[in-house]
Write a structure and sequence with these properties.
Blueprint: E1 3-7, E2 12-17, H1 28-41, E3 48-53, H2 64-69, H3 75-93, E4 99-103, E5 106-108, H4 111-117, E6 120-124, E7 128-130, H5 144-151, H6 153-162, E8 165-167, H7 168-174, E9 179-181, H8 184-196, H9 200-213, H10 220-234, H11 237-248
Parallel strand pairs: 2-3, 3-4, 4-6, 5-7, 6-9
Antiparallel strand pairs: 1-2, 7-8
Length: 255
């Protein structure tokens, strides 16, 4: 197994890429395992999903030996293979619970897609990043929708074409990561603690709301949608429990 899944008593699932001998680069087998484990985690009663890389580095991106081996494959085979990576990005991006990423060491190429697909990214202050594809005569195609969503088109125009290495402070400024820390595990624990204080269903619904509202025109349809969303959750069991707990000056049941 090159990917492991663990779940705590607090219902936090952690996915760890365990290919440290190749700096956690991913090949077809690793991609398949990540998809399988994320989809399995999504069937469980979990509160959050954390993505990590074993050892000194988060991930070197796509395994170059694997990519080189595909040169003899047909165009159709290459498309099918790339669609599996696209599926990985999709299942991670669409995971219903909060997703968090812990980045240490190097995060190159496709690894930036994984980071961009997560809701929250925490980087070690010594982490370094690179959209390195053009150095190899390639392009960051499959990850591009998610990376552009994270850092914006203007910044993508620079880093997609220069393949510059940049560090955690720049990743923070670009919006690729949310926190830079000299103790990233502690920062991750603080964020998870904050998430676990909140209504489980409300947290999922808040995440879904972003997908429904972002980049939409503020018109009657959007106003109707948002009014319906708050009306639905206001009368839900969780919404009523949260409000009653506030008035009773007690912790809600999910804590």
């Amino acid at each position: 197994m090159s990917v492991t899944l663990t779940i705590t008593k607090q219902k936090v699932a952690t996915l760890t890429i365990e290919r440290s001998e190749v700096h956690n680069a991913f090949d077809a087998h690793t991609i398949a395992q990540l998809i399988q484990q994320i989809e399995y985690a999504n069937t469980l009663d979990i509160r959050a999903l954390v993505l990590k890389g074993e050892g000194k580095h988060f991930s070197a991106g796509a395994d170059l030996n694997w990519m080189k081996s595909m040169v003899s494959n047909t165009f159709e085979d290459n498309v099918a293979d790339s669609m599996e990576l696209a599926r990985l990005m999709q299942v991670l991006f669409e995971t219903k619970v909060p997703t968090l990423c812990l980045v240490q060491g190097a995060a190159f190429g496709g690894a930036l897609g994984l980071i961009a697909c997560c809701d929250i990214a925490v980087a070690d202050e010594k982490a370094k990043f690179c959209l390195s594809e053009v150095k190899l005569g390639l392009i960051p195609a499959v990850i591009s929708p998610y990376v552009i969503n994270a850092i914006g088109e203007r910044q993508a125009r620079r880093y997609f074409q220069t393949a510059e290495v940049f560090f955690a402070d720049k990743a923070l400024a670009l919006g690729l990561v949310h926190e830079v820390s000299d103790s990233p595990e502690d920062t991750l624990d603080t964020l998870l603690h904050a998430i676990l204080q909140n209504g489980p269903e409300a947290t999922k619904q808040a995440k879904q709301l972003i997908c429904e509202v972002a980049n939409k025109p503020i018109d009657n349809d959007l106003r109707q949608l948002t009014a319906e969303r708050i009306a639905q959750i206001r009368v839900s069991d969780e919404g009523q429990e949260g409000l009653q707990a506030f008035f009773d000056k007690r912790k809600p049941s999910w804590q």
